[in-house]
Design goal:
Strand order of the largest sheet: 1-2-3
GO molecular function, one term: L-lactate dehydrogenase (NAD+) activity
Structural class: alpha/beta
CATH topology: Rossmann fold
Organism: Anopheles darlingi
Distance between the termini: 46 Å
Keywords: NAD, Oxidoreductase
CATH class: Alpha Beta
Strand content: 15-25%
Order of helices and strands: HEHEHE
Protein name: L-lactate dehydrogenase
Pfam families: Ldh_1_N
CATH architecture: 3-Layer(aba) Sandwich
Length: 83
């Protein structure tokens, strides 16, 4: 069983330690999401925090970025309403 587990659960990338430069984006409209996407794709920071008052849209945008960031190196995306 452990041999099967080792073959199935191989580590794809080395875990990244915190870079110390986390970017927070307040407002997840078109401009905020364009900024978040650009920050991640241009390797400005690997940690992005999204803040907005609309929780449903916030969670949806977070999931979209997380889905797309599967192709980037160790992107960490968090979201909060700030309440």
């Amino acid at each position: 069983m452990s041999e099967v587990k080792a073959k199935l659960l191989t580590q794809v990338a080395e875990p990244m330690t915190s870079s110390g430069n986390k970017v927070t984006i307040v407002g997840i409209g078109q401009v905020g999401m364009a900024c978040a996407f650009s920050i991640l794709t241009q390797n400005v920071s690997s940690e992005v925090a999204l803040v907005d008052v609309n929780d449903d849209k916030l969670q949806g945008e977070k999931l979209d970025l997380q889905h797309g960031s599967a192709f980037m190196k160790n992107a960490q995306i968090s979201a909060s309403t700030g309440k």
